[in-house]
Amino acid sequence: MKLSTSLLLGILLILTNNSQAQNNYTLSTYTVTIDGTSNLHNWDEIVGNVSGKGVVKLDPNKNFTLQSFNIVMQVNSIRSKEGSIMNNKTYKALKSDRFPEIVFALTGPVVSIPSGASSNIVNVTGNLTIAGVTKPISLPVDISEDSNKKITIKGTQLVKMTDYGVHPPTALFGVLKTGNNITIKFNITFLFVS
Q: Residue 11: inside a domain, yes or no?
């Protein structure tokens, strides 16, 4: 009788673990912008090259939890409508020759999100690395999922450049001085791959 009970418990454990499927996602579409200020005018830049991947755990009710995900932004793909002078100031400030990427990596799982949810605001925690300096952050994001196995994550994060050892750029022989605070806005979609 003890052997039968142990066997039954073992089977139940295996079935329970298998019912929580893990799926891999990769970043498919994105819009990432960086907004800032200066003593002369506001400015904005677009990040042209972003990649990422994630692992999503599905429960039996098809609700999902983000187990892991990361976003990698290539510093030398950041472009300003102000032109090459602003671009080069950005690359120099972010030390792109030594630290070519800005990276966000999730450190804590997100609460369960209902399948097919059109909008869920949740707080995620992770590590943000800029110019070789990594800091923990917490940010609210809006997560949605559709029947085509796409997960969209939108959010906005205020960043103080000096927290990451970045000196706010200047131009025109110091006449133009950028503010210390920048705002990173992102709208990214992850697509199911396996």
A: no
